[in-house]
Queue: 3 jobs
Job 1
Amino acid sequence: MKPFLLISLFVSPALVWAQSNVYTIEGRLGKVKPAAKAYVRYIVGNTGHTDSSLIQNGRFTITGSVDEPQHAWLFIDKSSIRFYLEPGTISVTSPDSIQNAVVGGSPMNIDNQKLKKKLKPTDDQMALLEKQYQAATPEQKKEKEFKGRFEKRNEAIFAQQNKIKAQFIQEHPTSMLSLYVLKQYTDWFAPEVSKVEPMFSSLSEAIKTSKTGKDYAKTLALLQATSVGAMAPEFTQPDTSGKAISLSSFRGKYVLVDFWASWCGPCRAENPNLVKNFKQYKDKNFTVLGVSLDRPNGKEAWLKAIHKDQLDWTQVSDLKHWDSEVAKQYAIRLIPQNFLIDPDGKIVAKNIRGEDLGKKLAEILADKP
């Protein structure tokens, strides 16, 4: 462990990874059942990987290789922890069970412990908020005022956490964790490119030119191409009957391109709001184009959801789930998401839902004949 850490002080992380992709997890736990095994599991692309080791006297060693850092899970019995799997030696220590383990040793996991310490107050606030929500009665959870208060507090905590993470990125430009934190933020919140590009630019060249850095640069390019003010990228997808439908066929109208799926709870919860606004503005040069991320075997579920939710507008899908060609083109990594496109094909708003959707449509369509 010591030689690796000494090297990492003088050589950029990208060069260290280029020299060796071997990882070693050294575990030391206080309380483990006899004959227990430790498993490390991670996913590269669409392929799952598992390495394991027998635990003897509370100690275990797992060795394998990864080409680049990965989010991974360490399982013992039915318990697990999440950590960063990367080349080098990773230490996992706990006075008792795996749930209380501290992961360190390697650069990203050392930095992650620093970030977790900074985030702990907000994590505690979030845990308390969740506890309070669970303690509420079913009747309270249905109340609009109650849900509004809960969502407002939840958003405030998220905002504080994002502020802490942004500060971490600013203070740690040579840490690969900074890139991963930025990537996670982009995947979870689908921000405008103007908000994340400066943070990426502030990172060291070694981080930006790593494989993960180059992949993130491609994501930024897609975000730029689908930012407010850009011309919406053209696409063609089959509708429910298999007929090819192009985005350009909606030119001359305001169209809300809505990314959703039958299996997506938040999407289904937002559908009544879409229906309401569609009915209100469909005669004012406005329509909706639904793009489903349903699975290859999910056509029946897709059609059933359209019927049940009364989605009376054009629906398209290549039924490729997250491999959807349009989802990749529009950098979609979470749903629901939407893009409001004007009659000329320009994106004029993104991710407007709830009351915000009605307000935006009223702003641009209220005076339409």
Job 2
Amino acid sequence: MKKKLLAGAITLLSVATLVACSNSSQGADLISMKGDVITEHQFYEEVKNNPTAQQILLNMTIQKVFEKQYGSEVSDKEVEDAVAEEQKRYGDSYQIVLSRAGMTAESRKAQIRTSKLVEYAVKKAAEAELTDENYKKAYDEYTPEVTAQVIKLDSEDKAKEVLAKAQESGADFAQLAKDNSTDEKTKANGGEITFDSASTELPDVVKKAAFALNVDGISDVITAPGTQAYSNSFYIVKLIKKTEKSSNWEDYKEKLKTVILTQKQNDATFVQGVISKELQAANIKVKDQAFQNIFTQYIQSDTTTQTTTTSAATETTTTAAETTTTSSN
């Protein structure tokens, strides 16, 4: 979450400086010294090729376009609720997190509002993808609910030790979960959890391993990426019950609808396409050559189009995708 908070951060100082630069040929003096000054224009010329400054301008443009198009669709209450949830999550450290991200409470609130606007536009576009063809494709990839007992551990050696005990004749898997699992949500219930392929409670690799088991089957130790960088979690799964999959995809229509919409909202390419369509409809023109690269993947400039590097495209696409999810994660 902290990384997402940092991505595309817009500081009030940076925004004010960039906007002010266009007001005159040199702008006001920012710094004075004996025999010289640094003007807004000089500062602008110095920083405009900086990737962070370019990202700020892109974010400002997206904010203005989406506010004009969808501003009435996002209420102040939605934004306030998202801010309150974020404050609750971070507690007393919230202001410190904002400060480290180069934001104030007001600039973060504005960023959340932009996130909500883009999120609305992406959802609206995703609803056009609810075709029978896409429903059937989602159905083919869908696995209905299973019930399993799951033991989560932080050490592979400990996981192997627990697995050996679980494989012993007459072993009580539920008790092993209660005694050893680090998953506070399920351990008290003997690790029992019900989920389908669209659920997000477990890593995909764990769900896949569970779906492959027969009833009463026990998996090997499953390694899944942890919540922290360069860390792993280790799982042991015992399947308790399987649900027979209906041959009629319409029996799962509501579930499949959620699957399709979620996939589209998490698809960076799809999000980029939505943003591109809105920027082009707003007739955005890039007036300074320095900013063409950051806008190229969204709009075509009237002047010679420059080739966007792979790294720049990846960074911008990631930021756009994160914009739609920051406030909800």
Job 3
Amino acid sequence: MTLKQLEAFYWAATCRNFAVAANRLSISVSSLSKRIGELEASLGAALFNRSARSASLTPLGEHLLPHARELLRGADHFLQQAGTQLSYAGRCRFGVGELTSLTWMPRLIEAIQQAHPNLLVEPFAGVGQLVEDGLENGELDFAIIAGPSSRPAVASSRIGQAEFGWVAAPRALGRRQRVRPAQLADMTLVTLPQNSGVIRILDDWLAAHHVAPGRAMNCNSWGAVAGMIRQGLGVGFLPTAWAEVLCRRGELVMLADFPPLNPLQYTFQRRRDDTRPMLDDMRKLAAKLIDFHAPSCLV
């Protein structure tokens, strides 16, 4: 029995399928199956029931799973104690929301590559729910998205926040000199859909000011939202840095009578059972570099 065999067994048991587990370990599915087969041979019994369309754990596999987790956790702890300047190799897959991908993600990738030149970085950008699904299924090593996760299998660490400002194009305001929150009832609110983390702070703001928009126009892209607001299709809010640039250009105006939204908290998320030292290093890098004022091609 080797650590590589236990590692192959553990990730095959906890990822969505063997292909995801093999991808996570940067090996082929056949190599993963070989390691599991060698482990089963050493134990003299099967760990997976392969008669079904998707492999499921046998009773022995269920019994071994927590022990494999503890052995791998112990090995990770030893690596942390053995050296403070570890250089990682293989593949690192992480997920982020669109706002992160458009602002400071390139800086994060650059920092990872400089610290670990043999590590292949593979980012994925999507809405928070999709990113969390990928993390929980084992397709991603870590995630950086808005808000703490409500999933029991996912641990969240706060690393920073994003701030937003209410804006509109002059043409959307018409002859109005000033716009107050109550007037949203007669206007269109342009924003992201319900599965976006930013909706949390929007719902809090609407409830606090006892208002509801007359109409909502939703889109799952920050770039599209910014474009629709610039076109005068409704009012909305944008990341503060974007809003300031567009207002300086005269394309938008700040809605000065709209109280500010609460900042949106961002977290570094990882599976609770994944104790690799690499993830601690990635979290520290992310906490150091997070910056939603970073340049964006959109503005």
